[in-house]
Design goal:
Arc Repressor Mutant, subunit A, mainly alpha, about 10% strand, 3 domains, Four Helix Bundle (Hemerythrin (Met), subunit A), globular, three-stranded antiparallel β-sheet, about 300 residues, single chain
Length: about 300
């Protein structure tokens, strides 16, 4: 069964060449072969030598050999993390095309792990494939964002309830430290004349927000819940990076968020799962209302 198209004559062979999976029917072939292995299959290169010989150092041959190698999982993960960070930071905005070769050069890997990383992001709904055009960062709408918040409410409220039962003193101290950093940012916003954050303050705020929620989920000691939330947060953080504007983080929003987190932290110290669940739910619902309200206002301003 042929798995690659016939390679060009630049390989230096006298007859067309193809990569085939070795089957009983091809074992008796009189043509000369070169053996390789890929994904548990025995792969052969079939070619007629004649008066010419194959140049194994030429680019097409090396590309064919590269395609026959299994993907290094660590390189695929490295590529995935790199692209996801670019998405989360806003460096890859909605609508941007993701070019395999360009990304491969940036990351320092071949195109194979990059392709796998993009396919993974596509399965998560972050990237969309356009037939004949390539892969693009997905553009989201308000309904997508609303759905993410609904899911976060269900999952992270449950995590807060579980964390109230199992969180350690060290984890409580870490959450308190993150909250202190958020308060510092809120103070900087309050003393500014604009009444809302700048880009650097927003970035720092979002980093602390993400860390606070991640540590809280870890404290729940529920690996299945943590995995589901992690998969969802990968999308949610991308949406946040695309949707958030420094004007969204006002003095009022920052102050209210810090107060809410302080109440949640106290509920965790008191080992009160019901209150922890409710406070987390209230916080996420306020966030949804603020963000979607902000987007709606932006839309009205453009009309």
């Amino acid at each position: 069964m042929e798995i690659l198209p016939t390679l060009p004559n630049t390989l230096g062979v006298a007859a067309p060449m193809a990569i085939q999976i070795l089957t009983p029917q091809t074992l008796d072939s009189p043509e000369q072969t070169s053996d390789h292995h890929f994904a548990g299959h025995h792969i052969i290169l079939r070619y007629n030598v004649g008066a010419a010989s194959i140049d194994r150092n030429c680019l097409p041959f090396r590309q064919a050999m590269q395609a026959s190698k299994p993907v290094d999982r660590s390189l695929a993960e490295k590529s995935y993390d790199y692209i996801r960070e670019k998405l989360a930071s806003g460096e890859f905005p909605p609508g941007k095309q993701l070019v395999n070769r360009t990304l491969a050069v940036e990351i320092g890997v071949s195109v194979i792990p990059v392709r796998e990383a993009i396919n993974r992001l596509s399965s998560e709904g972050v990237v969309r494939h356009v037939p004949g055009a390539g892969a693009y960062v997905r553009k989201t709408d308000r309904q997508d964002l609303n759905n993410i918040y609904v899911l976060r409410d269900a999952l992270e409220s449950c995590a807060a309830s579980e964390a109230a039962q199992y969180i350690t003193e060290d984890q409580l101290d870490e959450l308190a430290h993150i909250l202190d950093r958020a308060r510092e940012t809120a103070m900087q916003i309050r003393v500014s004349s604009k009444g809302y954050s700048n880009k650097r303050q927003l970035e720092r705020w979002m980093n602390d927000e993400q860390q606070f929620h991640q540590r809280l989920v870890e404290a729940s000691r529920n690996p299945l819940l943590a995995k589901v939330i992690k998969d969802n947060r990968a999308i949610a953080m991308v949406f946040a990076a695309q949707r958030y504007d420094p004007r969204l983080l006002t003095t009022e929003v920052a102050q209210e968020t810090c107060e809410s987190k302080a109440e949640l932290l106290q509920a965790l110290r008191d080992r009160d799962p019901h209150r922890a669940r409710q406070l987390m739910s209230d916080q996420i619902c306020r966030g949804r209302k603020t963000v979607i309200g902000f987007l709606n206002q932006q839309r009205r301003d453009r009309i």
